Amino acid sequence: MNHVIVTGGAGYIGSHACKALAQAGFVPVTFDNLVTGWEDAVKFGPFEKGDLLDRARLDEVFSAYEPVAVMHFAALSQVGESMKAPGKYWLNNVQGSLNLIEATVEAGVRNFVFSSTCATYGDHDNVTLDESVEQLPINAYGASKRAIEDMLRDFDAAYGLHSVIFRYFNVAGADPEAEVGEFHQPETHLIPLMLDAIDGKRDALTIFGTDYDTPDGTCIRDYVHVCDLVDAHVLGLKRLLDGHGSRVFNLGTGTGFSVREVIDQSRAVTNRAVPYNEGPRRAGDCTKLVSGSTRAEKELGWEPKRSKMDLMIADAWRWHQTGHYDK
Ligand code: UDP
User: Fold this and answer.
1) Environment class of residue 86 by beta-carbon count within 10 Å: exposed (0-12), middle (13-18) or buried (19+)?
2) Which residues of the chain form beta strands (DSSP E)?
3) What is the DSSP pairing of strand 27-32 with strand 47-49?
4) pLDDT value at position 325?
5) 193: Cβ below 6 Å to ligand 1?
6) May I ask the CATH architecture of the domain 3-172+222-251?
7) Residue 105 class from Cβ within 10 Å (0-12 exposed, 13-18 middle, 19+ buried)?
8) 141 an active-site residue?
9) 250 CA distance to ligand 1 centroid (A)?
10) Which of 141, 168, 223, 276 is catalytic?
11) Is the CATH code 3.90.25.10 the one for domain 190-221+254-326?
């Protein structure tokens, strides 16, 4: 059987990846500690509860399924939190990944797909962010992901562990069939927070900083639809299974949207007012993060089909309205 261990398969991106893997003929085995994931998001393959810090549990799951590859999503991923509690990020992300990578190698598996982030680049003024740009993260989240990238390079050199590293820009949207979607507790991401505010489920959105050096003063991000993102993962996995070596890919569209532009588009898509106010900057936020690479399109044949801002908001809004996780 074509088993793929999917760490974080009960989370937002991991659950979408499981759906895409199942559709591509793989059996996704979710390994998740349910700290930030949801068991009812595990719909497309077996579930194995476990923590990356528990090496014995990892070994048990590897020997039970004999996977062809690992897809590693499980991580703490909040920029703001990482600045306040960096130790959590170094322990869970870096030590957790070390355990996983060692378990992978010892199980004889040599194919590894890793979810990294554009936060590893840091703030680069007027530099096109392609994969060759120096990684100078300005927050502990980005630093933890960069450390894992370094670790993968060392394990490739020592043991021939081939990896595809994806540096995500901002992931948004939801499965158009609304089987899975975005839900974090607590929520910190712009679009779901805004949809909650539109819906009256929480207070007004606060814009974090209006004095950035951008045309409207708010931060600029490159948003990519979660379904396009996970399609790239399946392509990356197939590349590894075809025998190619390690490679890094940015996953973004090359188009940036400011926070104010996202608010405007949300108003247009939902046809509702967006309650918001303006607040101070959030520690650790880069001014502008926009991908400047088409490597994934050229080398993987990746075609981002749903990564248009209005579609991403519409898909997120449809998921939001299913009320899946309303408490
Ligand atoms: N943002 C904001 N208010 C919020 C949450 C986010 O203004 O309540 C801004 C944040 O400063 C950043 C952008 O929206 O510029 C995207 O933030 P998010 O947390 O969604 O993703 P990140 O870029 O941190 O990965």
Assistant:
1) middle
2) 3-7, 27-32, 47-49, 69-72, 111-117, 162-168, 170-172, 205-208, 220-221, 223-225, 247-251, 257-258, 276-279, 288-289
3) parallel
4) 66
5) yes
6) 3-Layer(aba) Sandwich (3.40)
7) middle
8) yes
9) 19
10) 141
11) yes
Task: Sort 271 into a burial class: Cβ within 10 Å, 0-12 / 13-18 / 19+.
Answer: exposed
Kindly tell me the burial class for residue 91, based on how many C-beta atoms sit within 10 Å of its own C-beta (0-12, 13-18, 19 or more).
middle
Low-confidence ranges of the chain (pLDDT < 70): 325-327
At 180, phi and psi to the nearest 5? -140, 165
User: Does residue 70 line the site of ligand 1, with CB under 6 A?
Assistant: no
* Structural tokens at position 178: 């609304």
Both tokens assigned to 84: 């306040």
Distance, in Å, from the CA atom of 51 to the CA atom of 99, rounded to the nearest integer, reads 10
Structural domain spans, the chain: 3-172+222-251, 190-221+254-326
Please report which residue ranges of 120-271 form alpha helices under DSSP H.
140-159, 190-198, 226-241, 259-270
Instruction: Give nearest CA residue, ligand 1 atom 23.
Output: 170
Task: Point out the ligand 1 atom lying closest to the alpha carbon of residue 119.
Answer: 25
- Kindly give the distance from the C-alpha atom of residue 286 to the centroid of ligand 1, in angstroms, as a whole number: 10
Is any atom of ligand 1 closer than 6 Å to the C-beta of 162? Answer: no
**Segment 105-123, tens digit of pLDDT:** 999 999 999 999 999 999 8
Confidence (pLDDT) at 216: 98
Which uninterrupted H or E stretch holds 304?
none
**Quick check: 43 and 14 in contact, CB under 8 A?**
no
d(CA 113, CA 248): 10
pLDDT at 327: 47
pLDDT value at residue 316: 97
Q: Given this model, what pLDDT does residue 127 score?
A: 83
d(CA 160, CA 237): 16
Contacts of 1 (CB under 8 A, 6+ apart): 27, 65
Report CA(39)–ligand 1 centroid distance (Å).
Answer: 26
